[in-house]
Structure to design on (1094 residues):
């Protein structure tokens, strides 16, 4: 019965009073819970102690950074929609809260964003930006657009096309004339539409196995955007501003040519400071240049593609007819120029 | 980013690994898909190049994965991906500092992969990686690059030595060291060279030249690396070689046995075949002639100049920033060079003077270096003050026992190498310490005494000289050695060969029934035949059969006779030998008892056949083995071995401290020393069990006794029962048979032995 005796003792122990001793700290009760803790950092719950609200410009930049770098896609979308409303509700002649030069580089990567709502919201925002500012940054925008056009996800591809459409509306000249803007973009089109030509000439003409392009709905859209792009690059614009400027009196006749250029980086085509460019990355400022390169590299592929699309009929066929018309118009005055290269 | 719903087809698209697999199976059909991915790669690359520091990889597939994918299938589309390697190279060289670390590693890995697929060649890869290795501030990248560079050099040298590549890399390393001597970047050249030297990929003098430049650099780290290489690089190489030869081949016998027992499968069969192949390969490797590897110190071009510059630049120069430890290393190298190549750097000895006091930190290292720097061509005038100083500072009754023994040891080590550095008064004084109470001092003094009994007995007092030395002096066989006098050399082990030949001849003659000794006018036909056989063997080995016929004719019979009968009948036929040899011969006969060795004339009187040379090698090996086992050898041989020792391994401070250390051992150390090599006795077991375990581990079987002891007793019951029922006659019969059997030595008996 030893165990029961021990149990009795233990039971008794619960009710024994602890003896208090002089000079000793009071013993802790049994049900005492240690609530002290250690922490390497202190988190302040209340982030701002100022009572007055932040200024609208600082809030704008805050949302801008949220839109560009937040991890959650709803947060990005909401921030973008905030920026959109801010820009839309701005009185007509007031300056932008932040210059476009700061806004654009932060938001352009969102073209490749995984969430569809973010991308549509981005397009809405972009449409609000002043045209002149965008034209200067067409090159950097094109970088992301091209990445979007060759992206794996079909949705991103179609949205990138929408952005390109917008850019063509806003700054068609800059799009086709900026470095890499003509050949590289055309190449992206070719690969997107499955008209790509390999460097290695093989006798095999195999249909795509892993099926990248030609998802039925977006194909007519692609054709239309390509038509728009080719129109910007190949078809001559009739009413030029320069024609107007020339009509000045005799002594000032050529003065336009000797003024400080109005566009930024007017001598970009000389490429004085950058690294050397190859055929793809080169600037094609003249229409003739573009025609030549297009004829040399892409015309055949595009023609066969158009023929096939025409035969398909329906929406795609109609779009192909539009494209064919643009092609005819653009290459009409192109006579196989002496190809010195 | 939340979960994204993707359609089945799109899933396949995003799955680069899947696409890669498909492309490998059928590159032509998937060209278009590849081009799409490549286009994506190009646009991502453009974005990246537009702003390398801020670009983040977003989207489903990151830039990194695209690079990886393209690198894996680039060899199927050489025309499309022509610019891919150069893209990677420019990204890496221009932006390596600001790249995200994972992307950076991926790019390096992809470049190496391209090299393995032979899209780019080794030189191109190394020329890209090496400048980055030197420049980059990131430690992880450096280790990665170092590893990749080494592995690439190893693989490109694995089948055959890639001289061209080695030369370009060596030149790059050399230029790195010489272009800016003060920079720490040279350490990479040192590291790479040392590693490749260790693995025996670089064994030429160019690598040594690189290390020489490193040792002469201005940066402490680089100097340390270079000097350490010379002091320890060869040892490291040998150790690695031993290690690699240790990993033994699989046990084929065991595998065969297992196949016989276990279930037969194709897999096990293949395994066996592989094992057999491996074993054959290793055996082949073993039988291959050992590649000649000279040590770094021997491959050095112009050691005199190197030693002088090292000494004047790092040691004598008061502006040199090296600390004591580094200085000691340099000093060790200089003295090693001086000792090994017998160089003359006179100012080196006076440099030692101020460091030879007992209070100097790590003075034993200095003493060891001094002894190392001594050789028989050092003028005694340069050494005498040093020996005097050591004696004054270290060796006295008042100084501590360790100090005195260290001093005496150092003096002995110096005098082994240059006996003329000692004068008689000092020597007689030092020898008196053999009566010291301290064991270390006593042994050291005795060592000095025995040394001078060999090399300069006339400096000792008469009663200290010992019997052999006294007799030698009286007979005139021990002469005072002059400065610069060289001993007459011979071929190592030649006397052994001669001895062996004589024995063989005697044995043959006994077999034939002739008297052991050769008669004066008998022509030794045996040896002639033997001679022929030796050369025939040579013919078989080499293909030059036409020329060798002439070779045999060169040996005239007379000469052979003379050379073979040297031991027995020297006086009879000396006419044909040249006069000088004849004189020596006469002297030899005079002093035959006194001299332990004489120079054999075998090599000067006849041409050794290949068979002879093979035998010579064998005898040499045997002799060295017996020496290692501990057969007593002559004192003179011991002395010679002592003198040659520093050629292979340098003298260390431990050698100087040796006696002092011996005394200081604690009980634990001594117990550990005694236990060493006696095997592990982890748990408490009987001796029998220990023996059994040892046998088991060696794969040996049990003895009959053990089997009997272990036998299940139920199995023995029947026999035991039967034993009880035997008749008296049967019992006596078995007993008799048992006695008989034990006399014979078991069932089978040991009659044959």
């Amino acid at each position: 019965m030893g165990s029961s005796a021990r149990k009795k003792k233990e039971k008794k122990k619960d009710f024994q009073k602890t003896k208090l001793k002089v000079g000793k700290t009071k013993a802790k009760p049994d049900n005492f819970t240690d609530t002290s803790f250690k922490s390497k950092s202190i988190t302040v719950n209340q982030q701002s102690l100022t009572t007055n609200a932040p200024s609208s410009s600082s809030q704008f930049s805050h949302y801008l950074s949220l839109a560009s770098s937040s991890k959650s896609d709803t947060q990005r979308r909401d921030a973008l929609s905030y920026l959109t409303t801010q820009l839309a509700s701005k009185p007509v002649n007031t300056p932008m809260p932040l210059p476009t030069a700061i806004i654009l580089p932060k938001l352009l990567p969102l073209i490749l964003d995984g969430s569809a709502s973010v991308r549509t919201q981005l397009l809405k925002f972009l449409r609000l930006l002043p045209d002149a500012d965008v034209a200067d940054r067409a090159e950097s925008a094109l970088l992301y657009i091209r990445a979007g056009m060759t992206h794996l996800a079909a949705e991103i591809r179609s949205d990138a096309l929408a952005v390109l459409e917008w850019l063509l509306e806003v700054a068609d000249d800059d799009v086709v004339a900026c470095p890499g803007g003509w050949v590289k973009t055309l190449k992206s089109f070719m690969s997107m539409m499955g008209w790509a030509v390999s460097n290695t000439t093989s006798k095999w003409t195999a249909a795509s196995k892993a099926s990248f392009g030609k998802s039925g709905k977006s194909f007519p859209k692609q054709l239309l955007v390509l038509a728009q792009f080719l129109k910007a690059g190949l078809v001559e614009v009739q009413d030029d501003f320069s024609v107007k400027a020339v009509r000045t009196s005799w002594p000032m006749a050529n003065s336009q040519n000797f003024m400080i250029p109005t566009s930024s980086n007017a001598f970009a085509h000389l490429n004085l400071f950058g690294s050397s460019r190859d055929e793809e990355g080169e600037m094609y400022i003249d229409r003739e240049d573009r025609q030549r390169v297009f004829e040399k590299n892409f015309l055949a592929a595009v023609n066969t593609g158009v023929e096939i699309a025409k035969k398909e009929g329906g929406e795609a066929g109609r779009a192909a007819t539009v494209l064919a018309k643009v092609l005819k118009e653009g290459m009409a005055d192109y006579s196989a120029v002496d190809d010195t290269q | 980013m939340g979960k994204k719903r993707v359609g089945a087809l799109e899933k396949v698209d995003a799955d680069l690994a899947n696409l890669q697999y498909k492309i490998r199976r059928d590159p032509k059909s998937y060209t278009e898909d590849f081009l799409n991915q490549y286009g994506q790669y190009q646009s991502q690359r453009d974005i990246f190049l537009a702003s390398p520091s801020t670009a983040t990889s977003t989207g489903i597939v990151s830039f990194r994965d695209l690079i990886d994918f393209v690198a894996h299938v680039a060899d199927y589309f050489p025309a499309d991906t022509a610019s891919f390697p150069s893209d990677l190279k420019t990204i890496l060289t221009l932006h390596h500092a600001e790249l995200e670390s994972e992307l950076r590693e991926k790019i390096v890995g992809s470049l190496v992969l391209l090299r393995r697929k032979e899209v780019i060649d080794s030189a191109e890869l190394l020329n890209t990686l090496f400048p980055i290795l030197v420049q980059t501030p990131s430690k992880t990248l450096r280790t990665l690059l170092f590893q990749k560079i080494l592995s690439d050099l190893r693989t490109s040298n694995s089948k055959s030595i890639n001289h061209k590549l080695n030369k370009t890399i060596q030149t790059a390393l050399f230029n790195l060291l010489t272009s800016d001597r003060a920079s720490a970047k040279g350490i990479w050249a040192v590291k790479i060279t040392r590693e490749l030297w260790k693995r025996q990929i670089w064994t030429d003098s160019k690598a040594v030249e690189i290390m020489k430049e490193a040792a002469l650099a201005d940066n402490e780290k680089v100097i340390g690396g270079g000097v350490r290489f010379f002091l320890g690089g060869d040892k490291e190489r040998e150790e690695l070689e031993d290690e690699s030869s240790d990993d033994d081949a699989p046990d084929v016998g065991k595998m065969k046995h297992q196949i016989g027992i276990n279930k037969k499968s194709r897999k096990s069969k293949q395994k066996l075949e592989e094992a057999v192949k491996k074993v054959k390969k290793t055996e082949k490797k073993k039988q291959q002639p050992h590649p000649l590897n000279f040590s770094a110190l021997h491959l050095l071009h112009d050691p005199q100049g190197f030693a002088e510059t090292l000494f004047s630049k790092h040691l004598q120069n008061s502006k040199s920033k090296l600390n004591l430890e580094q200085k000691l290393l340099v000093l060790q190298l200089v003295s090693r060079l001086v000792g090994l190549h017998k160089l003359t750097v006179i100012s080196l000895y006076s440099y030692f003077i101020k460091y030879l006091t007992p209070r100097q930190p790590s003075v034993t290292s200095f003493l060891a270096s001094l002894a190392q720097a001594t050789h028989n061509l050092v003028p005694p005038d340069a050494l005498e003050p040093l020996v005097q100083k050591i004696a004054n500072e270290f060796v006295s009754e008042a100084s501590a026992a360790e100090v005195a023994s260290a001093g005496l040891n150092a003096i002995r080590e110096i005098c082994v190498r240059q006996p003329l550095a000692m004068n008689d008064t000092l020597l007689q004084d030092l020898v008196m310490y053999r009566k010291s109470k301290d064991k270390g001092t006593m042994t050291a003094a005795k060592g000095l005494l025995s040394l001078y009994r060999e090399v300069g007995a006339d400096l000792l007092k008469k009663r200290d000289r010992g019997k052999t030395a006294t007799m030698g002096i009286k007979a005139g066989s021990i002469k005072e050695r002059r400065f610069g006098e060289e001993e007459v050399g011979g071929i190592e082990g030649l006397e052994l060969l001669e001895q062996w030949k004589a024995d063989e001849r005697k044995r043959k003659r006994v077999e034939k029934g002739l008297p052991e000794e050769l008669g004066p006018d008998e022509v030794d036909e045996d040896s002639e035949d033997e001679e022929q056989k030796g050369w025939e063997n040579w013919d078989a080995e080499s293909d030059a059969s036409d020329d060798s016929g002439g070779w045999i004719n060169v040996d005239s019979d007379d000469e052979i006779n003379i050379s073979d009968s040297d031991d027995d009948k020297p006086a009879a036929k000396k006419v044909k030998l040249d006069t000088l040899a004849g004189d020596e011969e006469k002297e030899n006969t005079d002093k035959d008892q006194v001299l332990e060795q004489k120079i054999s004339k075998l090599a000067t009187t006849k041409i050794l056949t290949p068979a002879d040379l093979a035998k010579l090698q064998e005898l040499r090996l045997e002799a060295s083995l017996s020496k290692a086992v501990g057969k007593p050898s002559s004192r003179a041989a011991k002395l010679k071995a002592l003198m040659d020792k520093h050629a292979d391994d340098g003298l260390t401070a431990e050698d100087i401290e040796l006696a002092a250390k011996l005394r200081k051992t604690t009980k634990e150390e001594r117990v550990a020393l005694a236990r060493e090599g006696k095997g592990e006795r982890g748990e408490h077991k009987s001796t029998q069990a220990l023996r059994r375990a040892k046998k088991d581990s060696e794969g040996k079987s049990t003895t009959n006794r053990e089997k009997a002891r272990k036998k299940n007793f139920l199995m023995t019951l029947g026999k035991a029962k039967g034993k009880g029922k035997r008749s008296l006659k049967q019992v006596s019969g078995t007993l008799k048979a048992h006695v008989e059997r034990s006399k014979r030595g078991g069932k089978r008996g040991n009659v044959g032995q």
